[in-house]
Write a structure and sequence with these properties.
Blueprint (H helix, E strand, L loop, with lengths): L10 E7 L3 E2 L5 E11 L22 E8 L9 H16 L5 E7 L3 E5 L6 E2 L2 H11 L10 H12 L6 E8 L8 H11 L4 E7 L5 H10 L4 E4 L5 H13 L3 E9 L5 E9 L3 E2 L5 E2 L4 E9 L2 E10 L8 E12 L16 E14 L3 H5 L3 H24 L3 H18 L2 H7 L3 E5 L4 E4 L5 H9 L10
Length: 459
């Protein structure tokens, strides 16, 4: 088991990449904000989150494992066995002292372990008991994922911990509740815990699984072959166990007269955050980023500033990072922040300078250009696949051709390989492609599920 101490608490840093020069009359300012969390914090530092550490342990955490037990998990029978094995592997990866529960999901949600509306505390005995309880899991019934999430939320909320995380596995479509019911469950759980979602096989709906992960600030992926579940669950849980600070928000302050056009995460995946803003005082808003370990992420911030004369300059935006104040349990992420937050001490400034130097004002910052292309790449893939499903061959060919062109230009080799399983590439640089006559369903679903994964800009 990993051993953590308070010295593992990450320190945050903010770097801003932009071309601050605008032509006369220019108003749109774009910047890439890189947020990096690295180890080496100190006891009592501004980063320390509520209930962050137990003696000799890592951050206090609670995990709910939600396993699909619907009837389709018996086809083939190895699928249920692989799901049990994967959940066992995840349980083995839990750090000592972590609170956890296993939920079996069908058209209703049931507590598999430990039961009684409570969580177990990870140790040799409870791990063995949980794995024994998994043997009773059998397939039968429908699929109502919203009920699984709501039960996970109730269980996770019983623990007084810093990190609350869910892992959700499904193999089918959410057929036994309405889309509105699932959305209501996601809205109720957003900000209360993060959740990674996995689809196993090829009979599930990509937009449902990616939508769950997006709403709950987790990751989504496909495990086309159930035999790969155990390795995937182990990696997922190792990452979850590395999270050290929860509820980090990107706070954006803008001066009077400035409008925020959008805020989106652009690495390691594209994630739209604009609509998730919560007001945080005069001209400031918070955008949720979830839990952090030792990692780095990039965000694209676009603001519109008031017009100004040549030679003038202004602060277009100030970016900082905040977390809930210790003891401020009344404010889950996504609620109005008010004053109950602690600043992490990291800050970045976005500037605007008006110039008549055409070379300076027309130059596009390499980071901004790169991530604008990566966001377009994700959109082109999704639109192309939707058009393909709708039978619009010409439209699909055009969009997926553009995607091949963008993937090649940006060095996104992984996405380029996935695209090559859906289209025959005639000329990558020109974006000339032909749709393959026959495409494996798993290949198409993998491309769609991973379409938002990006590559970092080459410094």
């Amino acid at each position: 088991m990993a051993n953590f101490s308070k010295s593992n608490v990450p320190q945050f840093a903010v770097d801003v990449y932009q071309n601050e020069y605008l032509p006369e009359g220019g108003r749109e300012v774009n910047a890439i904000v890189t947020v990096t969390a690295t180890g080496g914090g100190t006891v009592g530092s501004a980063v320390a989150a509520p209930h962050l550490y137990s003696p000799g342990q890592g951050p206090s955490a609670a995990v709910a494992l939600m396993v699909d037990c619907s009837g389709s998990m018996d086809y083939p029978p190895t699928k249920m066995r692989n799901a049990r094995d994967a959940t066992s592997a995840a349980i083995d990866t839990l750090r000592d002292g972590v609170h956890f529960a296993v939920v079996g999901g069908t058209h209703v949600a049931k507590e598999v372990y430990p039961g009684g509306g409570r969580l177990a505390v990870a140790g040799d005995t409870t791990r063995a008991q949980a794995k024994q309880a998994l043997r009773s899991l059998s397939a039968g019934g429908g699929t109502a994922i919203g009920t699984w999430l709501r039960l996970a939320d109730r269980l996770l909320s019983t623990a007084d911990v810093a990190i609350r995380h869910g892992v959700l596995l499904t193999d089918g479509r959410n057929e036994h509740e309405s889309p509105e019911d699932l959305k209501a469950a996601l809205d109720a759980c957003a900000g209360r815990f993060t959740c990674d979602a996995r689809g196993v096989g090829t009979d599930w709906e990509v937009k449902e699984v990616t939508g769950i992960a997006s709403a709950l600030l987790g990751t989504a992926d496909i495990v086309a072959d159930p035999a790969g579940l155990a390795a995937d669950f182990t990696r997922m849980m190792e990452t979850a166990m590395g999270k050290e600070v929860a509820d980090v928000a990107l706070r954006l302050w803008t001066p009077l007269g400035t409008t925020v056009k959008f805020v989106k995460q652009v690495a390691p995946t594209v994630e739209e955050l604009t609509g998730r803003r919560t007001e945080a005082g005069p001209r400031a808003g918070d955008y949720p980023t979830g839990s952090w370990g030792d990692e780095s992420r990039d965000y694209h911030v676009c603001v519109e500033v008031p017009a100004a004369g040549l030679g003038q300059e202004m602060l277009a935006a100030r970016v900082s990072l905040v977390i809930p104040e210790p003891g401020d349990t009344s404010r889950p992420s996504g609620a109005e922040s008010g004053g109950g937050v602690r600043n992490l001490g990291a800050q970045g400034l976005v500037r605007a300078v008006w110039t008549d130097d055409m070379t300076a004002s027309t130059s596009i910052n390499p980071q901004v250009a790169h991530y604008t292309g990566q966001a377009e790449l994700a959109q082109a893939i999704q639109q192309g696949l939707d058009l393909r499903k709708a039978g619009d061959i010409d439209g699909a060919t055009a969009k997926l051709g553009r995607a091949v062109q963008l993937a090649g230009a940006s060095g996104n080799a992984d996405t380029a390989k996935l695209l090559a399983k859906v289209v025959d590439v005639v000329d990558a640089a020109a974006g000339t492609v032909r749709l393959k006559a026959k495409v494996e369903e798993a290949d198409e679903m993998t491309l769609e599920t991973r379409s938002t994964k990006t590559v970092r800009v080459k410094k």
